[in-house]
Write a structure and sequence with these properties.
mainly beta; seven-stranded mixed β-sheet; four-stranded antiparallel β-sheet; 52% strand
């Protein structure tokens, strides 16, 4: 049974940092990604990474501030978030794809809330 479990969310002031983690169990995946969804908005891709880490996709809105990485020995995906802004407030989801960083993403975590205060 595949499970993706996120952790690391919380409340932080603008300019601060958080690191999200996602532990994957059940199988390995070629591509992993972080998505986010703010209230009243559609879910959007934040960043994605291939198995080797050689290919990454990062949304323009977070480029230069967020870094995605993975440790395949630990079956863990990370998202380092620096210089956080109030508009980064959202539920962040970890997701996995068997095919490519552009998806489709077939497996999802339950989400972790990130709130950035101004």
């Amino acid at each position: 049974q595949v499970q993706l479990v996120e952790s690391g969310g919380g409340l932080v002031q603008a300019g601060g940092s958080l690191r999200l983690s996602c532990v994957v169990s059940g199988r390995t995946f070629y591509a992993m990604g972080w998505f986010r969804q703010a209230p009243g908005k559609e879910r959007q891709l934040v960043a994605a990474i291939s198995w080797s880490g050689s290919s990454t996709d990062v949304a323009d809105s977070v480029k230069g501030r967020f870094t995605i990485s993975r440790d395949n020995r630990k079956n863990t995906l990370y998202l380092q978030m620096n210089s956080l802004k109030p508009e980064d407030t959202a539920v962040y989801y970890c997701a996995a794809s068997r095919v490519r960083t552009t998806g489709p993403y077939e497996f999802w975590g339950q989400g972790t809330q990130v709130t950035v205060s101004s």
